[in-house]
Amino acid sequence: MAPQSFKGFKAALEKHSNRDQVVERDQVARTAEQTIMSGPETIKTTLTLPQLPQPLRIQETPVNVAPSSDTTDAINDEPLPKSKTQTSETLEEFQEKLPTLLQHILDHEASPNVGQPCACQVPNANRTTRCYDCQFYEISCSDCFIRSHANLPTHWAEVWDSDRGFFVRHDIATLKPDISSINLGHAGLPCLSRYATNLVFHVIDTNGIHTTKIRFCICKGNPNRVDQLMRARLFPATINQPTTAFSFQVLHQFHIHHLESKESAYDFIGSLRRLTDNAFPQHIADPSSQFRMVMRIWRLLTAMKRSGQAHGIDSYLTHRREGNLIVHCPACPDPHINMEPGWERTPDDLGHLQQTQLTADGNHHSNKYRKNTDPDDISLYEGKAYFPNDLEYREYVKNLPKNIPEKLGDCDHLNALNKQDRKKFKNMDITGIVCIQCSHIFIKSTVDLQLGEKFANTDYAISHAIRNTKRLGSPPSEIYRDFIKKAPRKGSYDIACGFSVNAASRFEEKFPEELDFIEGMTWLIPLVHVQNHKDNCTYLFSSAYIEGAGHFHGETAEMPWVELNQLAPQTRQMNNGHRQDTIIDHHSHWNWAKMSNMAATLYNEVERAKELFLEKHATFKTLCALYADKVTMWNQMDRRPRMGDDREVQSVYRQNEKKVPSQSRIYHSLLAELKSMPKPTLQITVPSFLNEALLISANQREILARIKASKTKSELPASLEDLRDRLRNRIDNWHKLQKDIMPQVGDVVAQQAISGKFADSPEREVLYIPSDFSVAQRIKYGLIELGEHERRFHEGAAYDSVVKVRILRKSVDAMRRRKKKQDRGQQNNTRSSGQIHDLEAIRDLHIDDYSAARSAMISLGLSPNDPTFPPLTLDDTFRKPTHLKRAVGDSRMTDGRLWTMTGVTGGTRRVGSSSAAGPSTSRVSPSQVFGTQIIQKKRRLSPGTKTGAKGKKRRIDANTSRSTQAGNETSEPRPDGWIWRFKPGKKMSDEELQEWMDDGDRVQWFRTEAEMQRWREEWEFKQADFMRTIATFQRMSSVWGELSTISSTPGPVAYANKQSAMYQEMERRAKELFSKAGYSHLIDLDDRKILADYIREERAKEEYLIPELSNTEPRTSPAMFSDSDSDDYITSDDD
Q: How far apart are CA 898 and CA 928, in angstroms?
């Protein structure tokens, strides 16, 4: 019988101790609260819930009978029941009730009161008619139904058909002859004029399409149908003698559905036809064409109402473009609306507080087919929204010179852009759009593309975005001129390296009024897109290295594409006017969604920015203490990039590639040290002896890893036996040398050989080098000095393992990216998966090598808590590469402790023979870090297997990836991988070696400083955004309040009051969140202070000071480079 577990014993004990008992829980009263809000009143009620059901009585068991072995085994072997999810439990509850629920649904097909006398007590008036749309309407006679629905004209009447035995749906107008369901002009009552007639009308409401009758009021003469329909909240399909109308509700409902779900007008009308008659929808009228046209007008009217144009808001916001229908960003700097008084005093080094940030990006999904459409059907917005005036824009494109060279610069990304496949634009006259947005993801402007994305298109989009912020035809105000002069601007574009070269000259020629805005622009490349550019672009255009950029990564430009790409299948089939109107409507909806949630967004962003700044500050402060002897010199280097003689950008954030030190260097260093000794205490063969011992140990671990990978097989592969034979010969030859070097341990070695314990498994044999003995044994056998030399070898081996793990980890990441991008088909993917697994196995083996070297050093006297050689895990190996350009997500990540602690990578000891006083420790420079920059996905194949060409699984050989025999498949990276661009030198002096390591430390220090500075700027910038958002809401509430006083009719007054209250609530919510984040002191500033003053005070706090930098300031002089090249500095806005 299997031993009984504690859980099994406890279960059996409880089962038998509770015999003949009823286990009851305490019956605590269970209640539920219900809250009902009715107008200003709130009513709370408490309901008592039924008690939980009692458990069943447990079956009686004899007292003196112990649990049988069968029972115990059942308790031990029975698996615990798997807990169900809430969804599963709810579905099961519904499944149990399916018959009851179905019966309730079927009960509604009839009524038990059919045929009974109606409550009106009119003779022969029986209950025959009920309402399909009213919730609790009691079945009545037809006359009572008509009277009760005088103001509910689109409700469906269901009349009982006694002959056929079911309810039949009717429009109200069909219940009696000579009546209309909709009576206009008399509060639902029919007009009594003898000239009034009932007209057949199609009315479309949310519950279906009604063929009904309408009675217009003609008491005052010939009726104005449009006016009477609009007063009844019915939108006419035409202006002249309409016969079709749409309820405001159905227009509003489709508008929201279309914006949120991208439901097409055709599908929406189709659903209404099926709501009317799901069996024969083809018999129902199809008003799709009228509906599409009406919706275009409805969108425009809604935009005019919400923007304030219907109230004359231009007379209050005189600085904006007249008649504009744009939803503006509340956080972007606007000197007329939301910038604090005295912002002009903001110092240059805090200019990012008043910074305008724009992004540009193209989308080739929002295209349009070339169709034979009405050329006069243009956008109803007429250039007053995000798209410019279509006629003016087409004239601009038409007059552009032919074959303008777009490639300006040597970046390969521009070559790829020019070589894009033109076939994808076949039969299209519009191939996409270019959008200009701000960093808060508000769309500013959009223009159409014609056969690719040209600089001229983006120029016009930027120009239109600028024009939307100022009154055209009027000279710019003094406030605007100061804003352009003093407030910095950043522009992000994925081809900025080429676009920015002649941007100023193009604007001077085509858009001279916007030239001043462009001249002060600093250009960036989005942080994801810059990965596809030449490395030079990273150091010239990456926001990570540009002062004042904050965390302006620029990739937000692609976020609206998620919505527009869903809309594209509809808009590409429209004529251009309808297409632009639809896209404009979605742009406004996107912007409004951002505005309504702006306070919550800024709250999250300011909290995140502060958190990351504090994290980066702590890391940078640690590095300053770590490199205290170099920080003063580094801090005086110029942060600006410079073009070298080889046309490669030189920067403090970039490292030159040099040779990497290795275990062989430690070996040769020790040889040189021994030769230099006047009376060497050890033979010259000691380095060879120790070096061979470490290589044998590595070989043993390799074979053990292969055995572990083959554990599922009944027999080990023949290759393993061959490796064992070779290892045995190698160990035997090494033991011969051991007799001369370590004769005092001969008895211990002999005892192991005589036992024969490891005769067939040499991979487990103990070599008995100094680290295999305790301290007392090393003293006994006189192995102290030899142990010191062994420890130095283990330090070198640990260094080698760290470097190899870095390289392999980066190789795996590179191969994963290549696999995802290039491999197609099962065979290619399977082959790549096998290669990746090979590298992962080797990576894990080198981690084991490091752990073995560390264990040996601990045996030789190293403290287990020594920070020089901490435990190594995959998480600890992460570090953002210093020899590679910055990768996506670097600013949110922190290097693993392996890279931020002193020791093997910290530079506290030197490598080589220069230190004769004690053993030297090798050090890894940050330049050879190949840490991953992406989150690894879980492997789909099981460990140790991969699929061959024919789909058969085979075992992975850990040595396969290092095989150099001809014809063997290797898992080394492809020739175009990064590893083949690494160019190690053949000779390197100790001084050069130390310089190389210091250079890597420098790059790490500067990049960490840049990350800290960018997140500090982002933190400060978000505080300014919050203040501007509050000011915008306050100003807009005030403007709408003033608009309510100048309107002459109640409707516009009520709407203006509602808008004013809405912005007032947005202001209150923003202030509440700003205070919650800890910035209540910035809501109402002191009259003598501006935000920059508070930022200065915050920066001066003691916790942000770094002692190593207290006496130095960053220089702008070319301290890093020669004076002869001091004029070659580059900025991202250079022409």
A: 13
Give the chain's length. 1135
d(CA 764, CA 403): 73
Taking the C-alpha atoms of residue 529 and residue 539, their distance in angstroms, rounded to an integer, is: 14
Identify the three-state secondary structure at position 563: helix
Residue 152: φ, ψ to 5°: -130, 60
Give 333-369 as a DSSP string: --TTTTSPTTGGG--GGGGGGG-EEEEEEEESSS-EE
**Structural contact between residues 360 and 435, judged by C-beta atoms closer than 8 angstroms:** yes
Q: Give the tens place of pLDDT for each residue, 1004-1059.
A: 899 999 999 999 999 999 999 999 999 999 999 999 999 999 888 999 999 999 99
For 457, the enclosing helix (H) or strand (E) is helix 455-467
Q: How do 521-524 and 489-493 pair as beta strands?
A: parallel
- Mean pLDDT for the chain overall: 79
> 487 and 521 in contact (C-beta within 8 Å)?
no
Q: Helix, strand, coil % (nearest 5) of the chain?
A: 50, 10, 40
Exposed/middle/buried for residue 374 (C-beta within 10 Å: 0-12, 13-18, 19+)? exposed
- Checking DSSP bridges between strand 368-369 and strand 428-430, what pairing results, if any? antiparallel
Over 80: is that where the pLDDT of 407 sits?
Answer: no
The phi, psi pair for 308, rounded to 5°, reads 90, 0
Residue 861 CA: distances (Å) to CA of 697, 745, 773, 913: 20, 20, 11, 21
* CA atoms lying within 13 Å on the CB side of residue 419: 5
Gap between the Cα atoms of 329 and 1029, Å rounded: 8
- In one letter, which amino acid is 1084? D
For residues 346 and 353, the answer to whether their CB atoms sit within 8 Å is yes
Better-scored residue on pLDDT, 1072 or 80:
1072
Q: Write down the pLDDT at residue 880.
A: 56
CB 598 within 8 A of CB 331: yes
CB 131 within 8 Å of CB 142: no
Q: Taking a C-beta distance cutoff of 8 angstroms, is the pair 935, 950 a contact? A: no
Calculate the CA 799 to chain-centre distance.
Answer: 36
Enter the tokens of residue 404.
């303008």
- The DSSP letter of residue 773 is S
Q: What is the largest CA-CA distance in the chain?
A: 134
Tokens found for residue 1017: 């700027």
CB-neighbour burial class of residue 675 (10 A; exposed 0-12, middle 13-18, buried 19+): exposed
Task: Please name the residue ranges forming H helices in 742-783.
Answer: 746-755, 775-781
3-state secondary structure of 519: helix
CB of 1095 closer than 8 Å to CB of 625: no
CA–CA distance, 134 with 129 (Å, rounded to integer):
12
- Cβ neighbors of 1079 (< 8 A, separation 6 or more) are 606, 1023, 1026
Residues 1066, 1072, 1076: CA angle, nearest 5 degrees = 145
- Range in 125-134, 963-972, 1000-1009 with the lowest mean pLDDT: 963-972
Say how far residue 339 (Cα) sits from the centre of its chain: 30
| Residues 635 and 1111: beta-carbon distance below 8 Å | no
> What residues contact 1135, with CB distance under 8 A and at least 6 apart?
500, 501, 502, 503, 504, 505
What does the alpha-carbon distance between residue 881 and residue 901 come to, in Å, rounded to a whole number?
Answer: 16
57 vs 22, 676, 759, CA distance in Å?
A: 5, 91, 66
236 has which bridge partners? 245
The two tokens of residue 638 are: 């110029």
Query: Angle at CA 1087, nearest 5°, toward 1084 and 1090?
Result: 75
The pTM is what? 0.71
Element of type H or E holding 294 = helix 288-307
Distance (Å, rounded) from C-alpha 200 to C-alpha 599? 51
